[in-house]
Write a structure and sequence with these properties.
heterodimer, A: about 900 residues, mainly beta, Phage tail protein beta-alpha-beta fold, Maltoporin, Chain A, 22-stranded antiparallel beta barrel, B: about 325 residues, nine-stranded mixed beta sheet, four-stranded antiparallel beta sheet, about 30% strand, globular, disordered N terminus
């Protein structure tokens, strides 16, 4: 029954498209031919080639055709009846073949149809899963495309005979011959390459071979998750953010932590989206690991240059992470056991139309800590031995996808992460708890082959609490951010080289910048204090037009973004000399302040030859939220505030140029060079000795000014063969000028490093062994150094250099790992990873300070202390899949 | 009740990592180029107690050598002994301070019989008297440069009641106005018998308006998170519960003198910055380090503070 309905629907569709084609062709047949064309003709057979049909009509029906036999398609024609009016028959033929008929001087001229385009679409499955980022390429036309997030591809091609090449990393290329005369749907399954059979390809997405060359955007990285997993990382804990840090143009002030600065932008200038949900708190264990479980991720893309118009709200970059989708063949389980965390991911089909994926990770840094800190254990001096630390984290990812019918698809993603941190030695009375949750319902609807819509309804929330319980008090300090949003993105494809994207986004936020309360009913000392919550509404509307013309591709768009601060609320009013003159109160629902930003985006690509292209782009971005926190590395205590009367929204203009070149056999090597220049306005930094704790007037602790960042990024990537990996180099510079900071002199943020070199490679030693290496060299980070001391109240205190006026020594480090796969088995596939971080035990400076040593109550002896975390450290981990 | 903003700071968490990865971190001496033109440091306090008042002026240096016995600077210390120091108020009174030519008390060990003047101390020469609500200006002229600071003395701190129940040192309770911003600083010294100078700490060795310049703990508070009734505030670093064997003293002090100073917001921020600095790890888990704020002009470091004082003496209970 179901099947019949489907078939009926299919026929209806086919007829509808025929009807459209007919409408187009009517005009081509001039009126003089009416008489001849009205004639009724009788076919002998309801099928046959065009030549057979024409010959029959000429010989038996007296209709004269003029044609060149060599252009006649060989494809057999099928008719649903034998008796036809000639006009209708010709249209039926036109509908089936890429030809057109013209009536001239009592004869009908036949020629190749030049205008018509047919839609060539379908899905590409990789190991049974519909995979985004797989590619289809038509060499004859030099046209290609990649599958979208749901594994669909679609190309508009002129009718004709072509070859089409389907490919995906680590999988055998699939070549199909096409004889396109009508909209054609082709679903392709790709299988692992023979030389990689048995490899634990858990989930791999990689640079699309054609993308970088063909797409107009500059500064885009498709992050190869498998490669990130192979990278030898600290305690073997795979972290997507640390993979990102190895890319050119990405910097970080404290090596080993997971924050990242993109092209000189601040840590809060990056929009991090998980299936479209903005995630605000991305740190586990105070910033040393990120909250994303790589086994539950399918793909990751970082836009650092030309930002697509559909994204907005941050100055520097957008990182889009896609949760892994369940495969539709069988239930699969994969997992890993490591030094500080273990994870498990299950995915598979539920019936024919539903797939699911559930993944979880549990981290136990305190287990390691408590073990090595046992009294008498080798590491800890006896006086610091502590075995009752509590530092754990957990994160969960889930995705369910319903394929309702070929046109409708709904997927639901859920994400959660939670941390608990309590140290027995340091502030044992304090417990730090923080969590993030997010969810999205995504409805994808294909109106037709050209128009696709994607509607997302999402919720995201982060919460932090510090619970302090001692003899004398029992208090809690907390902050949170919560948001709900709706985003609709539509794309309309006019043809293979002509596409329009447009959409809207609306987000409502509820920000609680701080709350201090006592948990002890009898305690009347601490006043319940809550900073004013903020309820901003951020919205955006955009369009983006892409088209190609000869060797050029153009991509231009415009985004209009806005922020409305909505009451209840109050805003402080300052005079021109920054003196507080009063406060303005707003009723519930009243608009307190509103800001609008025009964000033009444009990129151009010019193909020098099939293997090389030049690109240029311009991007303007607005950012309406800023993160407030006093630690350089970013902590869960950081909270978010919207722009308001006293802190205007930031905006930036970025210009970039790029050269892209692929070479070698089958485009094995990929080289890119990109240069960028960005001017940011009203960037925020903290004044000296800023006090951010429960401060309702943050504007008095910060200042805003201008920032200029520029640099050159080089990247050489080898994508095939036994040796794979990339070499990246960045030369970068950031300068800020903010009144009131550093005596109004220009200075650089601490993550500003002039030279960055990163080498990441894997080498296959036979079928079971693989070596991975990662080498990093960077200029030292900037620090505000203690350059002298003074005597005060019989104690010594530091005075400091200009802000970030000194540099730490250069950083370099080599990490190695060796991966051993289990023998080829049908079900269970295991993988051991043995690694060493910092192989030659380089003492890289993490920070420099000159702390006072306390004798009794007197701070006195002092010593420059260079902290170097993460010396030589081995690890072992085990991953499995069945 | 402790100082919330201090204990809530994430500062010390950084140390966690030192311990977690103690197998793989190193601490070493490092050469950092010192500032070749270090600033002048001025430390001045005027109170509503009877004068004279003192000012201490020195120059910051790369590295001071400290006498480990009395914690006084022993080498590489540059006192400023030839400055012209003037204290004036908004009533037209003015006082040119004179070098304080008194020798260090003999009870300060190894003080090498130097005078306060040799350490850079000055003393008021007239009977200028501080009072709450008045504005004061301190001017220091040295080597052709003039450094000036203004301070207004906040109102007198509230009356204090003491709780002797649980701890050795009494906890403090007082009522304070909620509607205005108030900042307080606490100082204390325990001693034997009735004479505050008869004690073991360095702050016992100096006379009344001088010992606050030697008190090594900056107990500064904001009333931002307090209710009107502040109850059982523990201002001591540290305090101990009664009835426990005290191993730190054989012959223990019997009384304690407690001073509550009202301070201005800028004074609070200055001391708070110094407190934060002692815990700063170089700007990893806490903000970029910075020199403390100052109310002096022309690039001088330090603070000129005007405070109204409430003083109370109480027994220590073991």
């Amino acid at each position: 029954m179901n099947h019949q309905i489907k078939r009926g629907l299919h026929l209806l569709l086919k007829r509808a498209s025929l009807f459209l084609l007919l409408c187009c062709c009517v005009a081509l047949l001039p009126a003089q031919g009416q008489q001849l064309l009205q004639k009724n003709v009788q076919l002998k057979q309801a099928e046959g080639t065009l030549l057979e049909v024409l010959q029959e009509l000429q010989q038996h029906q007296g209709v004269t055709f003029s044609y060149d036999e060599s252009i006649l398609p060989k494809k057999p024609l099928k008719f649903d009846k034998k008796s036809w009016q000639l006009r209708k028959l010709l249209k039926a033929i036109e509908a089936q073949l890429p030809i057109e008929f013209r009536y001239l001087n009592e004869q009908i001229i036949l020629r190749k149809n030049k205008k018509g385009k047919v839609n060539f679409s379908g899905t590409i499955k990789v190991d049974g899963e519909q995979m985004p980022g797989a590619t289809v390429y038509v060499p004859e036309l030099n046209i290609g495309s990649a599958t979208d997030a749901n594994g669909y591809y679609s190309l508009l091609l002129p009718p004709g005979r072509y070859t089409s090449v389907f490919s995906f990393i680590g999988h055998q290329q699939e070549n199909r011959t096409l004889d396109l005369s009508d909209d054609t749907s082709l679903n392709v399954n790709l299988y692992p390459s023979i030389d990689q059979l048995g490899e634990v390809v858990i989930s791999a997405t990689q640079n699309n071979e054609f993308d970088l060359l063909k797409m107009a955007q500059t500064g885009v990285h498709q992050i190869d998750i498998q490669q990130v997993k192979d990278m030898p990382m600290f305690v073997g804990e795979t972290d997507i953010f640390k993979g990102i840090q190895a890319l050119p143009g990405i910097q970080n002030s404290h090596v080993g932590t997971s924050n990242f600065s993109v092209r000189g932008g601040g840590y809060d200038h990056n929009l991090i989206l998980l299936d479209g949900v903005p995630i605000y708190n991305t740190a586990h264990t105070l910033g040393f690991f990120s909250v994303f479980n790589t086994n539950a991720l399918q793909s990751a893309q970082l836009y650092k240059g030309g930002l697509p118009a559909q994204y907005g709200g941050r100055l520097s970059s957008v990182l889009t992470l896609t949760t892994k989708e369940g495969n539709n063949e069988k239930i699969r389980v994969q997992g890993g056991i490591g030094v500080i965390s273990s994870n498990l991911v299950v995915d598979g089909p539920i019936g024919k139309k539903v797939t699911f994926m559930v993944g979880g990770r549990y981290g136990y840094p305190s287990l390691l800590l408590n073990t090595i800190n046992k009294p008498g254990a080798f590491v800890a001096p006896a006086f610091v031995s502590s075995t009752r630390n509590d530092m754990n984290f957990v994160d969960l990812n889930a995705k369910v996808k319903f394929k309702l019918d070929p046109k409708n698809e709904i997927s639901i993603t859920a994400f959660g992460s939670q941390d608990r941190f309590r140290s027995q030695i340091i502030l044992p009375e304090n417990t730090y708890d923080w969590y993030s949750v997010g969810g999205v319902i995504n409805w994808k609807h294909r109106f037709n082959a050209r128009l696709v819509s994607n509607i997302k309804l999402f919720h995201s929330q982060s919460h932090y609490a510090n619970h302090q319980k001692s003899n004398l008090e029992n208090t809690r300090w907390s902050n949170s951010i919560e948001q709900q949003g709706l985003k609709a993105d539509l794309s309309y494809q006019f043809s293979a080289n002509h596409q329009l994207n447009f959409g809207v986004a609306l987000t409502h936020m509820h920000l609680n910048p701080g709350k201090l309360e006592t948990l002890d009913e009898n305690d009347d000392l601490v006043r319940y204090e809550k900073l004013h919550t903020k309820q901003p509404v951020e919205s955006g509307i955009y369009f983006d037009h892409q088209f190609s013309w000869k060797k050029w591709q153009f991509n231009y768009g415009l985004r209009l973004s806005s922020l409305h601060n909505v009451g209840i609320g109050r805003e402080r009013v300052y005079d021109n000399d920054q003196n507080l003159t009063g406060e303005k109160f707003y009723r519930s629902g009243e608009v307190m302040s509103e800001y609008y930003g025009w964000e033009p985006r444009a990129s151009i690509r010019y193909s020098l030859n099939p293997n090389a292209s030049l690109k240029a782009s311009y991007t303007r971005t607005y950012q309406y939220l800023h993160q407030v926190g006093d630690a350089s590395i970013g902590l869960p205590t950081d909270f978010w505030l919207p722009a308001n009367r006293n802190v205007k929204p930031r905006f930036a203009d970025q210009y970039s140029l790029g050269y892209f070149w692929t070479f070698g056999n089958e485009a094995t090597y990929q080289f890119s060079a990109e240069a960028y220049y960005r001017q940011s306005h009203r960037v925020i930094d903290y004044l000296d000795n800023a006090d951010l704790f429960m401060n309702d007037a943050i504007e008095t602790q910060i200042s805003t000014g201008d920032e200029v960042a520029y640099g050159l990024e080089l990247m050489l990537k080898k994508k095939k063969g036994r040796l794979k990996g990339w070499l990246g180099y960045t030369w970068a510079k950031v300068e800020r000028n903010i009144p009131g900071i550093n005596n109004n002199q220009t200075y650089a943020p601490n993550y500003d490093r002039r030279h960055n070199l990163s080498l990441n490679a894997t080498y296959d030693l036979g079928k079971r062994w693989r070596i991975a290496a990662n080498f990093q060299y960077m200029s030292g980070a900037g620090i505000t150094a203690p350059v002298g001391e003074f005597f005060y109240n019989n104690q010594l205190f530091n005075f400091y250099s200009t802000r970030n006026g000194h540099r730490l020594p250069d950083v370099h480090q080599l990490n190695l790992s060796i991966i051993l796969r289990s023998k080829q088995q049908k079900r269970w596939q295991g993988e051991w990873a043995l690694g060493v971080n910092n192989v030659y035990n380089r003492a890289n400076a993490f920070s420099l300070s000159r702390p006072q040593t306390q004798i009794g109550n007197v701070h006195i002896y002092r010593q420059f202390t260079r902290m170097s975390l993460f010396g030589l450290m081995p690890y072992i981990s085990y991953n499995f899949k069945f | 009740m402790k100082n919330l903003s201090n204990t809530y700071s994430k500062t010390i968490i950084g140390l966690f990592y030192i311990i977690l990865f103690s197998g793989c971190f190193t601490q070493e001496e490092l050469d950092v180029e010192f500032d070749t033109n270090p600033p002048i440091v001025i430390h001045a306090v005027i109170t509503d107690q009877a004068g004279p008042y003192y000012v201490h002026i020195s120059r910051a240096v790369g590295e001071v050598t400290v006498n480990p016995v009395n914690f006084l600077p022993s080498a590489n210390y540059i006192p400023i002994t030839d400055a012209t120091v003037t204290l004036s108020d908004d009533q037209g009174n003015s006082d040119v301070l004179v070098p304080y030519d008194q020798e260090f008390p003999s009870t300060v060990p190894q003080s090498e019989t130097r005078t306060f003047a040799q350490y850079g101390f000055y003393r008021t020469s007239t009977n200028i008297q501080g009072a709450a609500g008045r504005a004061y200006t301190l001017t220091v002229q040295h080597e052709g440069k003039t450094y000036e600071a203004k301070a207004t003395m906040p109102s007198t701190p509230p009356a204090i009641t003491l709780n002797h129940e649980k701890f050795i040192y009494p906890l403090l309770s007082f009522n304070q106005p909620v509607l205005e911003e108030n900042y307080y600083m606490f100082l204390y010294r325990d001693f034997f018998g009735d004479d505050p100078s008869n004690g073991l700490n360095i702050q016992n060795q100096f006379e009344d308006n001088l010992w606050p310049l030697f008190f090594p703990i900056f107990q500064v508070y904001t009333d931002q998170f307090w209710t009107e009734q502040v109850k059982d505030l523990d201002i001591y670093a540290p305090n101990y519960e009664q009835g426990q064997p005290i191993v730190f003293c054989v012959d223990c002090p019997e009384n304690i003198q407690i001073q509550m100073h009202s301070i201005s917001r800028e004074a609070y921020e200055f001391y708070d910055a110094l407190n934060q600095q002692t815990r700063n790890d170089g700007g990893t888990f806490n903000p970029e380090p910075a020199p403390p704020p100052t109310n002096f002009t022309n690039g001088a470091l330090g603070l000129f503070r005007a405070s109204s004082v409430r003083s109370i003496t109480a027994p220590v209970r073991y």
